[in-house]
Q: What sequence folds into this?
């Protein structure tokens, strides 16, 4: 069951049919030309927020060693770990 009102749904279906008709009339050469002229889409993200944590010195040293093996800054490695865990927790919370 759609949550959109019937009037909006009908208008969106009509617009989709118009887009399909417009796309079908394009030649591959014209599509390539339009793609070459198009500017890439850039999604702007908010700036990163600095955070201070008190961590065990042994954990920091271990993170630095692991990051050095990967060739990335240890703060970036820790941020990646945090992000992965947050995404994992979000996934289990939704289930």
A:
């Amino acid at each position: 069951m759609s949550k959109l009102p019937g009037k909006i749904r009908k208008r969106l279906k009509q617009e989709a049919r118009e887009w399909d008709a417009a796309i079908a009339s394009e030649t591959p050469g014209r599509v390539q030309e339009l793609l070459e002229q198009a500017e890439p889409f850039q999604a702007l993200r908010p700036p990163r927020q600095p955070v201070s944590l008190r961590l065990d010195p042994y954990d920091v040293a271990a993170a630095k060693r692991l990051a050095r093996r990967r060739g990335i800054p240890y703060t970036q490695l820790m941020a990646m770990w945090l992000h992965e865990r947050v995404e994992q927790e979000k996934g289990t919370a939704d289930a």
